[in-house]
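pinging the channel bc i need a second pair of eyes. not urgent but kinda urgent?? the chain im working w is below, pasted from the shared doc
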Amino acid sequence: MDELQQKIKQRQALEDAYSNFVEPYLNQRIEVKQESSCSVAVSPVGVYYASGWLLLVMLYSISILMRRFQR
């Protein structure tokens, strides 16, 4: 019986530790994420550069496919 009461006390201590330390931290993290609006500035030069490479790769792929079908 003494062992059972000891386990109950340990469980209560763990629950109290969670509600006193962990739960407020999680609530604070959740509040910050909900309030922050993430806006990332994207450089137009980088977008143009990536788009140019993508267009070049697509044109190359189409030319390879056209050659293969012409044979």
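so The mean pLDDT is 81. and The helical segments are 2-35, 44-70. — does that match what u expected or am i reading it wrong
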